[in-house]
From TrEMBL:
<dbReference type="InterPro" id="IPR002125">
    <property type="entry name" value="CMP_dCMP_dom"/>
</dbReference>
<dbReference type="GO" id="GO:0047974">
    <property type="term" value="F:guanosine deaminase activity"/>
</dbReference>
<protein>
    <submittedName>
        <fullName>Guanine deaminase</fullName>
        <ecNumber>3.5.4.3</ecNumber>
    </submittedName>
</protein>
<keyword id="KW-0378">Hydrolase</keyword>
<dbReference type="GO" id="GO:0006152">
    <property type="term" value="P:purine nucleoside catabolic process"/>
</dbReference>
<dbReference type="GO" id="GO:0008892">
    <property type="term" value="F:guanine deaminase activity"/>
</dbReference>
<dbReference type="InterPro" id="IPR016193">
    <property type="entry name" value="Cytidine_deaminase-like"/>
</dbReference>
<feature type="domain" description="CMP/dCMP-type deaminase">
    <location>
        <begin position="19"/>
        <end position="133"/>
    </location>
</feature>
<dbReference type="Pfam" id="PF00383">
    <property type="entry name" value="dCMP_cyt_deam_1"/>
</dbReference>
Length: 171
């Protein structure tokens, strides 16, 4: 049975807590900047409890690993599964500096996350020269049998700026 405290944590209105969403995105942006310093593409993601606690953050490692699927979101989801020992991440929130592409959205759906928060939009990512399948995340989930709560454009200007400063064709 849940204690009162645990119940509070489960029912916390993270979706409407704009300060919390900004704080989460700031943590993920720090990880993105570590990725850039390590020569990686400007994307990162994290997995959080609704009560605020961070399970993990991870940046994109496509270049370092030479693996096309190593997007920030997939790395964070994989690592959260490893750390928690669960393949079912229901109750947790995926926070990403960029709108999840269909591969990342599908991985989030498989992991059953309760929510997705993203910064830069699909069109911001394309503007910075990163090709993605042009299917907005909300559109993807309209066709899926699970629908996490989705909150986009959190710290969008900062996430977009980091994309534009690290354009794909800049190197
Ligand atoms: N959302 C997202 N889009 C990308 N496009 C290229 N890499 C990435 C990534 O890691 N995340």
């Amino acid at each position: 049975m849940l204690t009162d405290n645990a119940e509070d944590q489960q029912t916390h209105d993270w979706f409407g807590d704009l300060q919390r969403l900004d704080d989460w995105m700031d943590q993920v942006i720090d990880t993105l900047q570590q990725g850039i310093a390590a020569g990686q593409s400007p994307f990162a993601a994290g997995i959080f409890h609704p009560d605020g606690r961070c399970v993990v953050t991870a940046h994109n490692t496509v270049r370092r690993r030479n693996q096309i699927s190593r997007h920030g979101e997939v790395n964070a989801l994989d690592e959260a599964c490893r750390l928690t020992g669960r393949l079912d991440l229901s109750g947790l929130i995926l926070v990403s500096t960029g709108e999840p592409c269909p591969m990342c959205a599908a991985t989030a759906a498989m992991a059953k996350v309760d929510g997705i928060v993203y910064g830069a939009s699909c069109s911001d990512i394309l503007d910075a020269g990163y090709k993605m399948l042009e299917l907005p995340c909300e559109e993807f989930f309209r066709h899926a049998n699970r629908s996490p709560k989705i909150r986009g454009l959190v710290r969008r200007e900062r996430c977009r700026e980091l994309l534009m400063q690290n354009r794909k064709d800049a190197s």
